[in-house]
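cron nightly-structures :: item 1 of 1
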Amino acid sequence: MESITSNQEMSDNEMLKTLKTAIATSKRSLYEDGILLILWGASFTIGFFLHYYRSTQIVVWWERNIIDLLNILAAVLLIGFTIYYLFLRKPKQRTYAAISTRFVWLGIIIAHNLNVIVTRSLLQEVDFSLLHPLQMVLIGFALFVTGGIYRYKLLSVSGVVMWLAAVWCARIDLVDQFLIRAIANFVCFVIPGVLMYLQSKKSAHV
């Protein structure tokens, strides 16, 4: 009888240990997505800062061409890496949280492009001074929801910060919006991304 009880306790302990390991592995896999926040956040930060620089300084034609080329090159490389990271790399295990997050960001991208179409239809042009705050509201929503899905409060806080920055941008000129967006992207993407990625590496050695 004692032997049966002892075996049952060992089995329960092993099951609990397996469950904890699975949860830790799933969370580490989610936190590894911080690399995407870092790369996209850094790209947006640099890109919007270059837009601000180009709009406030006297820039010759070859400098403008270099800035445009860098933006295009960064976009191509980031899209390529994102496709590889999400769909082509191994292992390909996808948790429910990860799949949900993919749909959130895909929906935000679609909504942003619809905003462009709608504003252009109504105003007969693309009003970027209006479009930037609207886009920031959508991005803030995605960050807020992603933080809830990942159970990572800092991302949800970043969403709130992005919303506040959107309200600020709605009250200032387009040129200054570039600078605010550069700062907001660094604070809301790069910083949480670095912390998430470092935490995933720390969990891997536990």
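cron nightly-structures :: done
Confidence is low (pLDDT under 50) at residues 15-26.
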